[in-house]
Amino acid sequence: MRWLLTGGAGYIGAHVLRAMQAADLEVVVFDDLSTGDPGRVPAAVPLVVGSILDGATLRRTLGDYQIGGVVHLAGKKAVAESVADPLRYYRENVVGTLTLLEEMRTAGVGRLVFSSSAAVYGTPAGETVEETAATRPESPYGRSKLVGEWMVQDAAAAVGISSVSLRYFNVVGCADPTLADTGGTNLFPLVMRALMDGARPVVYGADYPTRDGSCIRDFIHVQDLAEAHVAAARLVGWRRCAETVNIGCGSGHTVLEVLDAVGEVTGRDTTPTISPRRPGDPVRMVAAAVKAERLLGWRASRGLEAMVVSAWQAHHPDSVARRLPVHPDGPAAGPAAAVA
Ligand SMILES: NC(=O)c1ccc[n+]([C@@H]2O[C@H](COP(=O)([O-])OP(=O)(O)OC[C@H]3O[C@@H](n4cnc5c(N)ncnc54)[C@H](O)[C@@H]3O)[C@@H](O)[C@H]2O)c1
Predict the structure, then answer these.
(1) Ligand 1 nearest atom to the CA of residue 52, by list position
(2) pLDDT at 335
(3) Which end of the chain is more exposed for a tag (fewer CB within 10 A), N or C?
(4) What does the pLDDT read at residue 187?
């Protein structure tokens, strides 16, 4: 069976593509290259340049390549940009997903893995957030992903599409410097760029009720995330389902802990500039990761060290990355040892 991977020229999509290839899944990439890079798509993989808003091109692609399932990552992802230009986000993420679902129905393509986000939760209440928690997204971006999930679930029920929506937590790192996140709005690229420019990284808020005052996030290595897509593709290929699954490590690091790790790995001074809290930044956002393990047989295996080392080498290819010191209670770098 052949898979269509929308957004396969993007940061996460390029990793998903490689994980699917490693699992012997045949893939065609569909991408409008608005933020993607065709250089991330190996020459042997067909790349259709088109928008998910363009039903005719989607229809032709689904038919020409006899697509049996879709892994749908194409979309816009910057929260602040979504606040400034919400209609663009609703068009790309909501109308784009709607168009894809319509064309899948017409072509009789019945398997879908959908890229959602922990942003659908808003500010969760508990230590970890389960898939059954209330969804109260706090940005047009988060709302556009939640509407996407609803459309996928409703289509799954009505037209027999088997689906898994993956709610990603904080995606970082890379498998290779050429596949790094160049988007620039997430913590890791911002910190790496600040260090490269000789500037201080900025931390938004150091007065949160956490162990060091900075926010807690569940950072997940993009290679682990990519492997979760393979597991989800196998599930929808195997049986009819309509599931929503968190994809995180299940444990959290504070932003200041990440900066310490970056300092250890890079040998640079990562003393931050503390700025006021940003509106809408939850204190703590950590996945309950049990369902992913139970349903997909998947769990994250790469720790903070692998995330930081790969991100640093991508931004500073000539660098020598150091190892993180071993924590007295266990390996400081592994997800299991991350203190929540
Ligand atoms: N990066 C994260 O931390 C994160 C977290 C949660 C969810 N996500 C979601 O994961 C997906 C991929 O994110 P990413 O970080 O790789 O971003 P990215 O910008 O690197 O990749 C998005 C890809 O989609 C393509 N694209 C955008 N609009 C399109 C359209 N209308 N038609 C066809 N292609 C289009 C872009 O050219 C790009 O290649 C997005 O849906 C994003 O919302 C990302």
Answers:
(1) 32
(2) 39
(3) N
(4) 87
